[in-house]
Specification:
Length: 116
């Protein structure tokens, strides 16, 4: 079994990025660490909270929790063998960070992140 380091990233689809940014800044008590027209991210208390306008290209309709793992391909194979369905294969989103999503047996979308 590959190791899992816990949920460190949660992405939220938002309809109005500017309005949502104000709410999350107030909630978390910090300014964004990443701020662009396609993504706003906050780092607070060891967690990364991301805001994705319109659900982004992946069409998110609800928040997705991302578990950080040492070997994304091994973990994807492990959860698939246990009954999960790969939704979005592992791919590089920049800076050597790999992400993937899968659905559990009830259709809930979960994510994995592997950093260099």
């Amino acid at each position: 079994m590959s190791s899992t380091q816990g949920i460190k990233t949660v992405l939220h689809p938002v309809s109005d990025l500017e309005k949502a940014k104000k709410v999350y800044a107030a909630l978390l008590g910090v300014e964004p660490s990443a701020d662009s027209s396609y993504y706003v991210g906050f780092d607070a208390e060891g967690q990364h909270i991301g805001l994705v306008p319109g659900g982004g290209p992946q069409g998110m309709t609800s928040p997705i929790a991302y578990w950080h793992v040492a070997d994304i391909e091994a973990k994807l194979a492990e959860v698939e063998a246990a009954g999960a369905t790969v939704k979005e294969a592992a791919h590089d989103v920049g800076g050597g960070r790999l992400v993937a999503t899968f659905t559990d047996t009830d259709g809930n979308v979960l994510g994995l992140v592997q950093d260099r």
